[in-house]
Amino acid sequence: MSAQSWFTPAVSRWRAVVSRVRTTHPYVVDSALAALVLFAASLQWMFPDEGDDRLSWQGFLLAVGTAAPLVWRRRAPFLSACAVSVFTPAMAVYHAPPPNVAYGGLVVLYTVAALCPPAQRRVMLVGWLVGAALTMMAKEHAQPFEYAFHLTSYLGAYALGILTRVQSAYTAALEDRARRLERERASDTARATAQERARIARDMHDILAHAVSLMVVQAEAGPVVVRSDPERAEAAFDAIATSGRDAMRQLRRILGVLKEEQANGTSARLPQPGIAALAELVGQVAKSTGLRVDLRTTGTPRPLPPDTEVAAYRVVQEALTNTVKHAYASSARVEFDWTEDALTLTVTDDGRGPVRSPGDPGALAASGGHGLIGIRERAAACGGSARSGRGPGGGFQVAVRLPAAADRQAALG
């Protein structure tokens, strides 16, 4: 049997014993410790050496006084140490028998060093060192090596208590740090979950609002032209079906991502529409509603972060949805202005423009409602900004600035 194969199980058993002792009630452990100290102090009374030391029951009771206070050493460490400090020299002075080793003193010095404030620790250590030296000088006429043995024992017990105190403080600091990290992790998870829910809510709002608006416009126009212009009515109903299928396809994609996240615990997303899909969006709106939409681009286009691409698409989608639903416009203009550090997109219509908020003549209220709030939230999430209001030549205008990748960190910071 190798030394390593023997040593590893022994260490495991010792760790299990230590763990069991730590989880035991403190009074049980300290009572057992007091009984052990009393037993060690009583050995010389039960098995006396040959000599002139007198043995008496009074001496045994003094030995009890050096052990019994240890039961309360953790609840009242300094008072317990004071009690042991009184009985130990009394036992030495009574000399029936004298303590060969102050076991109780070693325990209380360790306890005081581990649990008491600095002033109490210093007073107790100095008191025991001075008291031990005076006691040996007056009663025992000890040899020099005995002075060294007793004083070194007291200093060793005190140093062990200080080491335990430092280790406990270090362990408490690690546990506190772990708790803080756990709270921060939980907070980050909750914040990420809230942001993801807000993103999904905005996506679903944009998809449904856009699709339903187009369907409502076509549904209202269909009955009017069904008799006079059957082909146009048929085109309107086809547009309703197309808008519904497109909305269902995008909703299935979002719900599929949600199911995949719940099953795998990941936040992977399927590709979402970006700036490249805006031409198709503009064409769909123009075909479905009859609204003339002009798409213009100035500057040099370049790649943007994926979420900024999605934000640009959703902003234009929501702005055109508001135009169809509320503006009573005949035309709209979508402009992309690319600069070195940002993309500025503007959606302007020739409709009736913003209306006054009821009960507040000083404030302008866009009839887009939650859609405009979503536009501002999308722009802010990308480090950009958004504004809306009356257009330069009337109508309504939405302008959003989205920073490019190089400028985004500064905008978010």
Automatic annotation (TrEMBL):
Gene Ontology MF annotations: kinase activity
Gene3D superfamilies (UniProt xref): 1.20.5.1930, Histidine kinase-like ATPase, C-terminal domain (3.30.565.10)
Residue ranges annotated for the Signal transduction histidine kinase subgroup 3 dimerisation and phosphoacceptor domain, each copy included: 196-261
Residue ranges annotated for the Histidine kinase/HSP90-like ATPase domain, each copy included: 309-405
Enzyme's top EC category: transferase
InterPro entries documented for this protein: DUF7134 (IPR055558), HATPase_C_sf (IPR036890), HATPase_dom (IPR003594), Sensor_HK_TwoCompSys (IPR050482), Sig_transdc_His_kin_sub3_dim/P (IPR011712)
Location of the DUF7134 domain: 22-166
Record keyword Phosphoprotein present: yes
Listed name of the protein: histidine kinase
Reaction it catalyzes: ATP + protein L-histidine = ADP + protein N-phospho-L-histidine
EC number(s) stated in the UniProt entry for this protein: 2.7.13.3
Pfam families: DUF7134 (PF23539), HATPase_c (PF02518), HisKA_3 (PF07730)
Entry keywords, A to Z: ATP-binding, Kinase, Nucleotide-binding, Phosphoprotein, Transferase, Two-component regulatory system
